[in-house]
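We modelled each protein-ligand pair independently. The example shown here corresponds to the fe (ii) ion entry; the chain sequence is given first, followed by the ligand as SMILES.
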Amino acid sequence: MSRPPVYLKQNVVAEPLHNQWYAWWFLASPMTAPLFVANLHVKIMESFVANPAIHVAALKSPALRGGPYLNCGVERVGEVKALLERTLQEESLAMRYAAAMRELDALLASAEGYSLEELYPRVPDLLRGYVELTYDLRNRASARFFEPLLYRSPFHRESSQSVSLRLVHGDARPYVFSTPRLDDSREGDLQVRLPFRHEAWDTLFAMRRTPAPLEAVRDALGIAPQDGDTFATFFTPEPPRPAPRYDGDGVRVRYFGHACVLIESRHVSVLTDPVVSYDFPTDLPRFTFADLPERIDYVLLTHGHADHLMFEPLLQLRHRIGTVVVPAGGGGALVDPSLKLMLQHAGFRDVVTLSELESLPVPGGELVGLPFLGEHGDLDVRGKLAHLVRLEGKALLMAADSNALEPRLYEHVQPHVGSIDMMWLGMESEGGPLSWMYGPLLPAPLSRKMDQSRRLNGSNAARAIDIVQRLKPRQVRIYAMGREPWLGHVMVMGYHEQSPQLVESRKLLAHCREHGVDADMPYGQAESFLR
Ligand SMILES: [Fe+2]
Ligand SMILES: [Fe+2]
């Protein structure tokens, strides 16, 4: 006798992992992943195994929470050692790739402006055929990767992928970039080793809204018999609350936290930079997975930073997303992995790229790509884009972490965008140093002074006011500040009242209000209508 169909509980967390580490964009591309494994993960684990007490002591200081300290008790050193040994064994190719990259860099540094032809045979054997050697116009040599070929090479290791499933009852989650997920099966954690692109994930996550037999999804995911009881705790006969599609006039705008905004008309639904809270009883009201419509026609991604391109919610929404729109970028530069390729290889079938001032028609409007200046430590990253969303005669600018380093840009942009009803802008005006995110890609460490000067910072008040004065939006919303507690696993902000980011934000709000512009910095949840 078959049992009645069940729903996936709304408080089941699903963390995509790569060798047990939280899978963020640099781990998704085979061009960059080996460097993060070799130059970050292995080094952190070696350091912890050699002296775990240093890590435990460092993490007692809140200022060091975002640093390269592994967040485990000393008693787990054996497990970390086992993971380190397994990583060194299974990822031996990554270790060789990292060594080959150092050799390649030395080779490129030896080029003096003469033909690069003779360098090809001297490219490290592992990388030959995967790179083109080029000069910039100042005769500085560099390598461009044929990234699509790397996805079809042994460097793309789907066997390292897994998803950790468990129930949560609150927002607190450990910071993931310096700590792997160890085996917490005694606490109800279940790690399922199946590539992200596998269709069984769609079967599972569709059950958040559509009930199905437990046995079928259990078998599709290949859950072992001994894990059957834990797996069964993730399901319930209770249906979720209804989440009807918006059917009113104009545009409804719902803030889901950070840079995630759901923009809906009667004809189309658009979700930006998905970062979505799970659903559980809480004192902080928020929209959650349970509030997303059955069909999300377009997901817009602004850039690859881990708080904007997050595989965790994307994987869970894949079955209900129509098209993912990403910045064109790519081009094979090590610092700029293609967002399109990484999403396609994670099982997204319809991924389209948009470039600056390019437009994509959508029902009742269009999406237009706009320049996204700065916020990447002056690195030549093209995989970033602000989005103009035109629906039902209204225009919303989703500017993410754009830093208005040159206000004249917005003078040039203004005639192309016309009047803007609502502008969303991030104001994380401090940002981390360049090495915090890009360090494992650097052939040699930057001086501390250089590193501290080249930050991943968005606009401060003066620059945000520059944008407002030039684009003259009717309404301004400050977002993408990492304030919501469901961001704690990827951002360590620790804001207080006098944090410069909040001081700058308040200055922008005051400026807007003085000039009759409706302005707000939503927290947790917000809803407005443009009619
Ligand atoms: Fe960013
Ligand atoms: Fe951000």
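The first strand starts at residue 7 and ends at 8.
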